[in-house]
Amino acid sequence: MNNKVLIDGNNLTLEDFINVVRHNYTVELTNEAIKKVEKSRQIVEKFVEEEKIVYGITTGFGKFSDVNISKEETKILQRNLIMSHSCGVGNPLDEEIVRGIMLLRANALAKGYSGIRLSTLNTLIDMLNKGVHPVIPEKGSLGASGDLAPLSHMVLVMLGEGEAYYQGKRLKGIEAMKRAEIPTVELTSKEGLALINGTQVMTSIGALTLYDGINLSKTSDIIAALTVEALNGIIDAYNVKMYDVRKHTGQLNTSENLLKLLKNSSMITRQGELRVQDAYSLRCIPQIHGSSKDAIDYVKEKVNIEMNSATDNPLIFDETEEVISGGNFHGQPMALSFDFLGIALSELANVSERRLERLVNPALSGLPAFLSRKGGLNSGFMIVQYSAASLVSENKVLAHPASVDSIPSSANQEDHVSMGTIAARKAKSILENTRKVLAMELLAACQGIDLRGKKKLGKGTEIAYNIVRDKIPTIEEDRIMYEYINICEDMIKSNIILEDVEEKIGKLL
């Protein structure tokens, strides 16, 4: 098996990204990328030698763009840039996020529009491949001019400064580089700016959230289908003919998933058998889950573009020997996308909590109150719903868009910023909350099925139910509930339910 990903700045996929970040695939530049990097570097060196006035190469940065820098001072300029911009605060980002940052920055530089030396780029790739993960604080980025502060912490380690995790230990940057046998670098003209002027922090956080969100949206269909059975839901509402008159792809995909999952179930009903219509949280699953899937698909399209983009400033076009100063570092495309992603994921939690409420409420379910055979002596799932409601409420606060805010910086030279990294971090928090809410629904749905008097379940739901029951028994008397909730969350997070279901009944959409 070839556990390697070749990068050229143009063809990195979300699956490649996950393989490097989570499965430790190694990274290597293509021959074409090497040629592009070397050609753009030649242009930088030519302009430095000629002392041509070019932003970020022979000038200062931001408001200091009108200060000229001599060729003798270019190394000092680049080092000072990294030192002064290392202003991140807060907890360190997860190592998988840091690996994503390093991969995405390397891929952007591999496009050959940034003017970095090949040796410097290879240092970053060596760090990624050998597991030297810089300590990057989670807070401090405005999302324009890119993720300056957090990316500076990444580059500190390349210089032998800062801190890094290596083989499970938090070390001084120089010590981590020594142990990994990677020489540190001395940055020269344009290189510091090339390494920190970009959107890779927000994109790494967002891409991981996106990938997990795609799987969570499919798992939410499985969990919803279990609840449909626990409540003897009406399957007619999922007829794909509904799509013929309202052609939203996510709606169709969700309907097809539900029909596949519930096939041959003896616990679903038809229109008019028990009631004419279900409440919206059951009847409208295709419309609600489907809308989130459509939003997630939109975000995936934008992330795929961003992962293969040059996002620094200025950009070097070697064919015409042009250096163009612009704004590709601005995080607005990702800020709006990750705000949208957070909203889409929060809706999966919103409707999940409403289904959970129907399960525990005897006036709505026809099941014992709070899913307990001996209510009163036992509280059953009463506070499970409280906890879910708390998370859903928190998500509503987190779903407020970060992208509508802007605070001018750099003496008003940078007078509109994206807050895209905040948007990405919020989306990640929403994902984590949503996964917990769905775990609670999963636990409650299986309990409801048992209390209803379990009959034959659907082709897909039977698989999911058995996975849960293999670890968690029917709850006859009050138990320490968080332990069961955590088990269900681990099942969702590890994708064991999704993978097992898909292996036996086919891919979900």
What features would you describe in this structure?
By secondary structure, this protein is mostly helical. The chain folds into two domains: 4-198, Orthogonal Bundle (Fumarase C, Chain B, domain 1); 215-505, Fumarase/aspartase (Central domain) (Fumarase C, Chain A, domain 2, Up-down Bundle), CATH 1.20.200.10. The protein has 20 helices and nine strands. Helix 3 (74-85) crosses helix 6, helix 9 packs parallel to helix 17 (420-452) and helix 17 (420-452) packs across helix 19. The two termini are 28 Å apart.
What is the strand and helix layout of this fold?
Elements: E1 4-7, H1 14-23, E2 26-29, H2 31-50, H3 74-85, E3 89-92, H4 95-110, H5 118-130, E4 133-134, E5 137-139, H6 148-158, E6 163-166, E7 169-172, H7 173-179, H8 191-196, H9 200-230, H10 241-244, H11 249-261, H12 280-283, H13 285-307, E8 315-317, E9 322-324, H14 332-360, H15 362-365, H16 382-398, H17 420-452, H18 461-471, H19 481-493, H20 496-505
Parallel strand pairs: 1-2
Antiparallel strand pairs: 3-5, 4-6, 6-7, 8-9
